[in-house]
Amino acid sequence: MKLKNINIEERMKHYNVQGLSITLLEGGEINGTENYGILEVESNRKTNEDSIISACSISKFLTGILAMKLVQDGLLDLGDDVNESLVSWKVPENDFTKNKKVTLRNLLSHQSGIKDPEGSFPELNSKIGVPSMVKLLEGKTPYCKTPIDVKCEPESEFHYSDAGFCIIQQLIEDVTEKPFHQVMNEQIFEPVGMANSQFNTTMLEVDRQNFSCGHNKNGELVDGKYPIYPYPAASGLWTTSLNLAELVRELMNAVKGESKVGISESLATEMITPQRGKSWTGLGVFLESSEKELEITSLGWGVGFQCMMVAFPYLEKGAVIMTNAELGVHQMEGIIGEIYKSLLS
Predict the structure, then answer these.
(1) Domain 8-344 adopts which CATH fold?
(2) pLDDT of 88-103, one tens digit each?
(3) In this structure, how many other beta carbons lie within 10 angstroms of the beta carbon of residue 31?
(4) In a 3-state reduction of DSSP, which class is residue 274?
(5) Segment 285-295, tens digit of pLDDT
């Protein structure tokens, strides 16, 4: 994929975007990284290939890959009732779970029947601190004031859900008996070579030199500069466009039976296959088209940041586009959409 007919600096100025990082893949290999602008308005911290940006919901793509690895290792099963493996918390049984159970498959494809309570899952409030995942699922924190339960029969409807990925996080912690971030480090970040990726719940221990601040649509710093989402599996990832591109490459390789982390060709293919009759949702990723033209995407949108991962696994090309600006419109209606269209033109 190549950038064509677009003046990035001019479009950044148009949209008040302070910093932007793009990594492209072609022929199954990383084809270069381009970095523009700065990490913090009115600073001299330039964006470079080591710049760490909040990927927000692209975290779900990583969680999908990690889940596949744990399925491969026999610690999880896509089709089992998650309550058989959950220890610290259980999905409450109700009329909707009588005939169909909540499974890892329907959680990853947003078809578990769980709906996020209105106003839930905001950024970290430093005065309240990091919630325990169990208390969060029980509805006992300001981040989610309603207990999480199943609102319609699993696999009957699609509802995009952060809560569903919080359940996956708890499931992974229960079966591995380790914190989620440690499992991700050991199973994904280290083997793939994602040294600039981490799940932070506090910025206190962070080397700020490489970390981007968030900015609003006017190009101004957001409150707190570094908004954190204390739900790692759903939206807690901070990473570089280059590291994310390495993970896209890992998925492409896994689909060919050449995974570094040890995910089989069949499981990698399952991840990018439409789930339960919904053509647009795979396992932790979204889908367009089919066969050789299959396109997978993952979008990140949070306070101060917007990002996009797009890949064509069978054509072996893709792109990761990360910005430190929240434009207040869908990615396709801002600078990310313009870059995406230029890549496909």
Answers:
(1) Beta-lactamase (3.40.710)
(2) 999 999 999 999 999 9
(3) 16
(4) coil
(5) 999 998 899 99
